[in-house]
Amino acid sequence: MSDSITDILLTQVINHGAPLFGLYLMLGALGVPVGASFILIAVGAFSQQGYFSWPEMALYGLLGALVGDALSFGIGRFGKDEVNRRLGQSPAWKNATDYFQRKAWVAIFFTRFLVTALAIPTNLIAGGSGYQFPRFMWYDALGETIWVLLYGGLGYLFGSQWEIVSQIVSDFGLMLLGIVLIFAGIRLGMRWLGSHPLDTEKLLRNVQSRR
């Protein structure tokens, strides 16, 4: 998102207050590129400067994020039948679904405030895999509460330096995303090799035949 659009959004939040802030965080949870983390840090900083009541902003922001997550979960649930029709008989899809059911709370909780770029895919997968909605909302609420308090708290704590803090948080999130993707790639590669063992004798024969 460009700086000019971000400035417009922040100006609108200053003019209209907590309800609009909650709406922005809801849209962010649905995948609309509003720069939710950036705005959250800024709102914390502006609260420290007296523009807002931080408890009110935090409450509206948390409610907006939770509603957005619930809606994106619902989108995944709505498409569940079509996904199962196309992939339901696939062993890979069944294994992925079973694995997600066992480890879902980790993905749901930590993508709220650490690897936030994976939050929306996690919501869609949780809905599409048939994960229980009450359990999803429980872990979602825990993670989103930490997100609002942590990011907003950083803005509140550092005040006028909030833009620097926002850049550091963004860079840190990208680094974590890269680590997660690399780790996931390694695990997928190992699982594939485990299910497709190399025939070393055949490989040696092929190498020798080409000499």
Description:
By secondary structure, the chain is an all-alpha fold. The chain has one domain. The chain is 83% helix and 0% strand. It has ten helices and no strands. It has helices spanning 3-16, 18-29, 36-48, 54-78, 80-87, 91-113, 119-128, 133-158, 162-195, 200-209. α3 packs antiparallel against α9, α4 (54-78) packs across α7 and α6 crosses α7 (119-128). The mean pLDDT is 82.
Q: How would you concisely characterize the structure shown here?
A:
The protein is mainly alpha-helical and 211 residues long.
SS class: mainly alpha
Instruction: For the record, give the distance between the C-alpha atoms at the N and C termini, rounded to a whole number.
Output: 56 Å
Please indicate the count of domains.
1
Mean pLDDT: 82
Principal-axis shape equals elongated
Taken as a percent bin, the fraction of beta residues is under 5%
Major sheet attributes: none
Radius of gyration: 21 Å
Count of strand segments: 0
The poorly predicted ranges are none
Helix content: over 70%
Number of helices: 10
Order of helices and strands: HHHHHHHHHH
What is the strand and helix layout of this fold?
Blueprint: H1 3-16, H2 18-29, H3 36-48, H4 54-78, H5 80-87, H6 91-113, H7 119-128, H8 133-158, H9 162-195, H10 200-209
Helix pairs in contact: 2-3, 2-4, 3-8, 3-9, 4-7, 4-8, 6-7, 6-8
